[in-house]
């Protein structure tokens, strides 16, 4: 019971659930990779990965946009936006979105492990390097965030 930090009672629309927030120690494996990858999180694409050896990977959000389009149409066909059917559709849409992000983030981490990446650099949109003309041109021409950061 010492690890329990908070208990919440949540109404799901049909029943009450208790959510326990616990503090848990997680064992972290040693980093074995020597390479660096830059990750740019975006609006139209979930993530763009740029490895220091020059190759890059793009993870688009097409399937989420398709889901949003589909579920919005289905919800609009419901008689009432507060109906049981609309609530179920919203829950299903949310669950699919959560599953997509969880699965994709696990995939990205596994790709980094497979590529021997030891350092992941996350790019913020307000990064001073990318705001400067030289930094932005270096980023665009090479397509590698990791290289742009290293040369800073």
Model description:
By secondary structure, the protein is an alpha+beta fold. It has one domain (about 5-150). It is about 45% helix and about 25% strand. The strands form 2 sheets. A 4-stranded mixed beta sheet has the order 5-4-3-6. Strands 1-2 form a two-stranded antiparallel ribbon. A hairpin with a 4-residue loop joins strand 1 and strand 2. The protein is flat. Residues about 130-135 and about 140-150 have low confidence and may be disordered. InterPro entries: Transposase. It holds the Pfam family OrfB_IS605. This is Transposase, IS605 OrfB family protein.
The overall pLDDT, averaged over residues, is: 81
Low-pLDDT residue spans = 130-136, 142-152
How would you characterize the largest beta sheet? 4 strands, mixed
Helix content: 40-55%
Distance between the termini: 48 Å
Strand content: 25-35%
How large is the radius of gyration? 21 Å
The shape is flat
Taken together, the total number of domains comes to 1
User: What is the N-to-C succession of helices and strands?
Assistant: EEEEEHHEHHH
Count of DSSP E strands? 6
Which strand order do you get reading across the main beta sheet?
5-4-3-6
Counting H and I runs of at least 4 residues, what is the number of helices? 5
Q: What class would the helix/strand composition place it in?
A: alpha+beta
- By oligomeric state, this entry counts as single chain
């Amino acid at each position: 019971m010492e690890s329990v930090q908070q208990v919440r009672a949540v109404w799901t629309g049909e029943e009450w659930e208790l959510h326990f927030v616990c503090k848990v120690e997680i064992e972290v494996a040693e980093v074995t990779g020597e390479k660096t990858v830059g990750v740019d999180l975006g609006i139209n694409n979930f993530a763009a990965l740029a490895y220091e050896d020059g190759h890059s990977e793009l993870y688009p959000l097409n399937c989420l946009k398709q889901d949003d389009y589909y579920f919005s149409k289905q919800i609009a066909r419901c008689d009432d936006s507060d109906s049981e059917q609309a609530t179920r559709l919203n829950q299903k849409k949310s669950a699919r979105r959560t599953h997509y992000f969880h699965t994709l983030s696990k995939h990205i981490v596994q790709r980094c492990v497979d590529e021997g990446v030891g350092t992941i650099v996350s790019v913020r949109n307000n990064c001073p390097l990318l705001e400067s003309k030289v930094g932005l041109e270096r980023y665009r021409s090479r397509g590698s965030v990791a290289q742009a950061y290293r040369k800073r």
